[in-house]
Structure formats: structure tokens, C-alpha cells
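Continuing from the previous page of notes. For each protein in this section, the sequence appears first, followed by its C-alpha cells. Read the first protein now.
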Amino acid sequence: MVNLIGTTLLIVGGSFVVIAVKNHSNKMTNLPLWKHQKNILNDDRNFLLLSWSCGTGKTLGLTELVKSRAFSVLILCPKALVKKWEKEMERSLPNTPYKILSPYWFKKYHKELEYYDSLLIDEADAPYFGTNQTSKALFSYLKRTNPSYVFMGTATPYRSTPMNLYNAGKICQYCPMSYPDFRAKFFFQEYFGAQPVWTPKMKHKDPAVKAETQQELNEYLRNFSDIIRMEDCFDVPKQLYPEEHIAMTPAQEKVLKKLDEYTENRSAFFRYANEIENGWLDEKALGDHMDIDSIKEEWIIDASEKHDTMVVFSMYRNQQRRLYEALKKKHKKAYVAIINGDNSSDAPEISAIVDSVAEGTHPKYTQAYLVASTGVSSGWECKYVSFAPFASLPWSYQQWEQSIGRVLRSDNLKENIYSILIGGRIDARIWQSLQDGSDYDPVKHAKEDVIL
């Protein structure tokens, strides 16, 4: 079934996981383009990365690039975006053969896939710019089929290491230096004991080194990318990030003290300590799963009484469940929903209901509260919601940027409030990392700090 362009649907284990469609409709709908979307049509590069901020219209930009050149398209995107891309192709390229695959199914079937003259990769950085099996599958497919065009989109091409940009350049056929030369230019060696470690210069303690490296990385990226930040295209209202320092309950303090006594590995300690700060503890830490009283939950409930609509971001599934149940209990007549890995493919429909309530157009509900996993931070939006607290922070800067992009959208720019709930020193350290534009690294934290 994977090898047939005309296939309409692939169902595995009863689940809708990937679409492979040849649409026979002749109906095509054109949408108005922003200036930066029109400008990209003048870019004659056949291998291009759109490094555009969340909410600036990457989907439409990628579609327009493909529309002007493609005869057939292979689309790779997260599972949560499969339905979105199906609708986009039906709208913009109704007569073009295409197939849509999530990273998992692409990795599994890449050796069997036929030739498509165009390859389009949405949210390209996480699975494809690294050194994992999905990335290796992509390079294998590119070598075997040699597509005429490769267009990619991501808001966060640089994550925790410049190697992302090195691999992104290779996908776009830009590779001006060898891997050792690239490493020597953008990394430096540190020694932890007798063991040398290559560390990105962006993590250097000297601000001058970081600033110079940032400029050099931007110059490297521009050779195969179109870079757009939202503030370059629009007058963005001020975005507010008030810090709310939440005291630990006696129960949390008691469990944290016990964890410190029984955990020798400090990086593991920091990971579990952050769970405690957010009201739970994995059974792997001390032998039993624990739900722990947390004032964060009370803060969210109090905030919901002051706002008719709200998106609550949370990293931890256990916290997501508890917040959802608490909001459901508090607001029996409101629309209360959750978005996480279990229902990511339904995220666009769920968020659309919340957004219609916020806009004031829903026929039934006047209040709506959404608990959203920071790990499912693409493929949906709540552009009319203006209050979006973070009950817990993602460790990934990419997830942080994408979470903000669910609310900050170019087609409804407004002032938004993202309250940051800080429940302890690990939360504070994660928040500092995100403000510095980097991932939180508990191993590095363990080498630099002692919490108790």
C-alpha cells in the first residue's frame, strides 16, 4: 500500500496514521499572501529551508513553493499535522499526486517509497537534523531517489547543538566544509577529569565568543535558508511573561528531602526534583508513584475564575491529567479539554472549539479551558486566547518556542500573558535556560550546582 501513489488511506492497527492520496478534485483555493510569503516565490533555490517563526505562515509558504514547481510531492510531518497537510493539499494542489508520512512510518518504509520530484518536510529539525535513525533514513532516501526539490520548514533550526545546522545544510546540498572543520569552527573542547568533551561555542561562558558564534551560525544558515522572525514582518504587541513563584507544600518538601538522601546521581536528582516541584514523582525514583499536593494546581484553578478562556501548558502528563480533572470539576458547564500524545491528531479540532469560545462565536459554550502538552506544540492554534500560563516548563527550547506560537499568531496579533509558574530551583533553572535560548541540561546543571 505504501508504494501506490493512488492509495487513499493507510490504517495500521485500526489507527489513522498516514495518508497517501491522489486527489481528483479540480477545485483549488488561493489564499492571500503576506509580503514575506510572496517574496519567497522569487527565491530560485531548489533546496531550501524556511526558518520562519511560529505563526508566520510556514505552511502556506511551503505550499506556494511546491505549487509553482512540483509534479508529485512526498510530505513528511509530525503525526499531529497529517490531517492539516491533507486539507492543505486538497485546497492548494488538488490534482497533484502526494503522500504524507509521519517520521515513524517514513523510517519504517523509506526503502520502499517511490520517486517524488518534490520532498516537503514540516517541523524538520527534531527528527531529521540529528543523527538518529530517522535522519539516516532521510539521507538514504535522498541518495536513492534524488528529488529535484527539497523544501523544509522549522521555527527552530538551531537547538542544543550546531550539528543540527550541519545536517540541515547537507539535506539542502550545502556542505562547504568537512565535519571535523565544522566542529572545530563551532565547538570547543572541555575536560571533565581526563575526558575531553566537544561543547558548542554557543554555551561558552564568554559573551563575546557566544555573540561571534551566533553571527557566524546565522551567516552559515542563510546560505540555504530564508530566515524570517515575526517582528521582522509585523508590529508585534508586547508579550508578557510574569513569574509566579509558588511555594512548596510540606508534602513536596518531605519527598524532596527523601529523594536527596537516596539519589546519588545528581542529574537524575534534578530530573526527579522537577517532577516533585510539579506535584508528582515517578515510581523509578523511590519505588512508588506519588501524587503530591501542589499549590500550582490551586493557582491554575484560581486563575480560571478570572478568565473565561485559558490555555494551560504543561510538560508532564501526570500534571496534565490532574489539571484537566480539576478544571473539569470546577467548571461543569464549560468546555474543558486536553491535548497530549494520546489525541494529538485531534488537536486542530479541539483547539478550534476553544478558539471559537474565545472569539465569542461558539453556539453553546461561553467558557473554555485547554490543558496542552508542551510536547504537542504544533499543528493547532488558539489565536483568540490571550492568557496561557505554563504550569510546568519544557526542557526543550524548540517546544517553548512552538508553545508560544500556538497563541501568538500573525493573523491575530495581540498582547498575550504567559504566566511562568516557578515551583522551585529546578523550575527556575529551566526558565533561565529558555530565556538564554537553550535547552535545559540536567547533566550540565549537576556539574555546576548543588541544590540542597
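Done with the first. The second protein uses the same format. Note its length before scrolling.
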Amino acid sequence: MVAEYPSLPRLFLDAVDGFANPRAQMNRTAKGWEAISAKEMLRRVAGLSKALAGLGTQSGDRVGIFAPNCPEWHVADFAIQGLGAVVVPVYFRESPERLTYILKDSGARIAFVAGEEQSIKIAGCRPALPALEHVIRASDSGNPGAAIHDASLGETSPHSTLSYRDLVAAAAEPEVGEYRRRADEVTSNQLATIIYTSGTTGEPKGVMLNHANLSSNSRDFTGDFELSSSDVALSLLPLAHVYERTIDYGNIFRGVSIAYVEQPESIAQALLEVRPTTMAAVPRFYEKTYANIIEKGHRERGLKRKIFDAAIRSASAAVPWRAHGKSVPWTVKLRWWIADRLVYSKIRAGVGGRIRIFSSGGAPLAPELAEFFWSVGLPVYQGYGLTETSPVVTFNSPKMNKVGTVGRPIPNVQLRIADDGEILVKGPCVMQGYYHKPEETRAVLTPDGWFSTGDIGRLDADGFLTITDRKKELLKTAGGKFVAPAPIENLLKTSPLIANAMVVGDRRKFASVLVVVNFAGIEEEARKAGREFSTAAQAINDPWVRELMSREIERLTSSLAQYERPKRFALLEQDFTYANGELTYTLKLKRRVIEERYQDTIARLYADVEEPHPEPAG
């Protein structure tokens, strides 16, 4: 009986045979961008898979992948799955503590590692991981101080480290044939991966996804995008996160070339060099891109500045037409056409000049930002999902798109809104449960397959979903009013003066906001007023800046209900970062961490209106 959704190795083999893409994978080396053909990728997959089998890896065994986005990531992924084994991805900048927790909790016997930093980190963790028998290392540059050593494949003693290069070097046709035979034995209902949640609240949970979960999602939500082997996708979000991983599966299975960005700092360069046609990102990418566009335009002087300002006004006027498909006067179209020649074309060139599909997910994107990108010729298709749903639940597409929403349910997925506004999901994408956590699984997954997302949303008359906020992140003021922080934060981040924001006020008399200033934007406004600040620290303490920011916050939130408008604010010099533990690796705010870190700052916002120590939220 043929499964409705084939296994991931089966789809990979079909793509290799059907497209034979000569640039299946692309990575940047000292010589520039180099391509790996689909045939060569399969040879490496088969060689590594045989090596893993030689180490005793069997169906159901867990194998960790601890690496940045690189060709070896997908080679390891398909090699592991071709044996029916289970991939346990670890974020490439993960802390030693969480790395140890994930590998220990999952029971991983083998870990695949790429990158010198990752090799050193896992070497330091190995004493705490007695069950980890082998590490396969893809990097050639070891660090003697990390006590890393290579061993031959024949070494089967505990705690050996093997060379990926050596393991795949000898792979040839016999190994490819063997891989094909093994892959055909993998069924769609077998466990494919355990992905540990980022742990914004509480202990990380291992989400169990089988092959049907991932293969259904990768096929069902990408069908309307007409992807082909002529497309080039930039893989920049962490492959340890299911969002990038599933999107890359969809690309690989349609013969799309994958260009890997190993470090987030290299994104701007990669966009110009690779000139991708499609890529997925989180809202923070679009927020920063918009801020950079405005900042660069505001640095212009004279006629160039006037042209830029006029182009931004034309983009705004063209939103009903460009973003929502409505009629506008011919004069609006004429001004847009002129602005497109002079300004928008340069904006598109700044991201490579060939983008036809931007995907946004992981968190809500401000509607105003989405409208801006559509208006300048950069279509951003928004979607919604969670790790537990593999991840896509709803998505916009060229055939069904409504800017400002996260789309309609993808094929074969059901969605309904509970009485309290929570989004409930059912379909082939819904997880098998949390690894070794039956009680947590029962709390969110009903016996008949409905998953409680923990997100609040609403459906419009056309079936398009809008996300309001996380159920657990809703703030309840002392007056009993519920405040959804994310939409307010998204409004604030559209300002050129604001780099980031977090609304606070749970159990307080009113909402307030922590504002990370965009110093470049402040400098621009100060220059107009004949003022000058040497540092951001000096600026945030200046009364003139506080008054400027007060007016800006009031302007941006004027359309909100009275109880939603932040009454007070604190200006912060430093942005929230993953390194400081304030963001997840998809750049979502870790609210509890930030509130704890800035508890004194928050307390001062309410010092004259509340008791010094209000009861913490339960």
C-alpha cells in the first residue's frame, strides 16, 4: 500500500532522479560560491548513511545534528533518516547546558557536528554525556586544546571522533544502491525527528514529528508557489528550527537550488552574491531591512533626499493597489512607476534583484511593514504555525493572499477558534506528542487529534486568519482589561526611532513599554533640530529625546483602545539579543527573562502609582 505522504528519503530520491540539479546545494568557500550537484549530494548521503550503519545505527536510534546551515546539514539529515533513525537537531549557537540537556534527554548515541566552534563545544560536553558513543565531525580544523581527535571508522571504542570527509570519500555506486534499498523500508508513520522547543517558558520539550508530518507539510503549503529548478533559495534561518527545515524540504523536493548562509552576519552579502529568487525569514529580518532602507534614504541630501521622500509617500499611496489589489487613480500609478525607476528598483537590487517570494513566519509581522514591501515590489507571503504542527498551519500564496493576515489553512489542515479565542488545529501536520512527556501531550492534544496552539486569533469572512497574541502572553491590567502586547510592539517598531520594543504591565494599573532606541533615527531628528549626541547613552537620558519619543509613541498608538496605549516608557540603549538570553533563536522575545533583567527599570515606571512589590503572575 502506497502511503498518502511518502517518507522524506523517498521524496529526496525522487527529487535527485527527477531534477538532477547540477546546483542542488551551494555554499560559500574561500574561492567563492561553489555548487554541489544532486548526484554528488546523494553520493555523500549514501556514504554517510553506510558509515552510520557500520557504527550500529538502527531504526529508531537518535542521532544529533549540531551545525550551522551548510550542505553537510542536509547530507546528515537524509543519511540518518535513510536508516529509519531519528534526527535530533541542535541550534548551532546553543549553550553547553542546553546542548547537554537535549542530547541526554533524547538518548542520542551519535552526534554529527560541523564547525570548529561546535566541535569544541561538544567536546567540552562529552564528559556529561556517557551515552554519546561517537561524534562525526565535518570540520577539518580542530582545536588541540579541545581534546578533539580523529579516529578511523574501524575504531568502535566509546567517545571516538570520526571524520566526515573520510567517511564519505570512498562512497560509490554500491553505497547509493544500498541507500535506496534501505530508504524504501522507511515508512511515513516512522518517527523522523525530535525537535526541542526554544523554552521561552519552562523546560524545553521534545516535539516528535514523523515522516508524514514533515512530508505533508512541505508539499501541501508550497504547491501554489510554482517552484522549479530555475529557482535559488537562500537558507538562512537555523535548520534546527522546523520552519527553515520544512521550507528547505519543499525546495529540495522541487529541485530548487539551496544556498546556505552559515552566519546571520553574512546575509546581506549572500543576497547580493547569490541573488536568490526565494527565501524565508522572521519578522525581525523585515523590520531591520525596512529600518536600513529608511536610514540610508535619510542620509541623502538635497535632490536625492527629496526624491527618496517622495518615493516613500508614493509607496504609501500605492498600498491599496500594490498590496490589496484595489483600484487607484492613474496619477498614483504614474508616481509609483517613476518612483520604481528611481528608488524601488534600487531597494530590490539591495536584496539581489530577483526575489519573487519572501516568506515570513515565526511571529506576527506588522501589517504596515508587509504593505510597504508589497508596495515596493517585494512580495512578502505571511504564514502561521508551530513546531508542533511541522510547522505550517496557514499560509498566503499567489493564488490566495490577503496582506495583513497569515493566510488560510493549507490543504488537508482543519482549523477552528475555541470559545476563548484559542486556535485549534487538526491534520497530518500535527505532532505525535512530546518525547517522554505524556501529561504535557494530553494537555494540548485531544484523542481525536485536535491540537491546542496556545495562540489567540480570529478568522475573517473569507477564512483568512489573523493572530492576536500568545494566550500565555496576554497581559491583564489591574482593572481586568486584557492587552495583547505583540500588535502594539509591531506598531512601535515601524518607527525609524525605535529598534525594538516590549510591552509590560501584567497586573499593573496600566501598560508601559520598554523601548530600544534606534540611535541613527534619533541622530537624524536631532540634526534637524540643531542638536547633537555623541552616544546613545547620552541621547536616552536627554529630556528632548524623551519628549520626541513620547510624541512618537502617542502618534503610533493613537488608534488603539485607551487601555492598550502605553502610558509610560523606558528607553534602553542595548537591543535584546540571543546571546544575552533575551531572544529565542527565531528572535522572539523571552518576556520573562527580559522582565527579570529590567525589573528595576519596570518598577520605576510604576513607583508612584503602585505598591513596591506587586504579586507576580501565577
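What the second structure shows: The chain has 22 helices and 26 strands. The domain at 474-605 is CATH 3.30.300.30 (GMP Synthetase; Chain A, domain 3). We return to this in next week's lecture.
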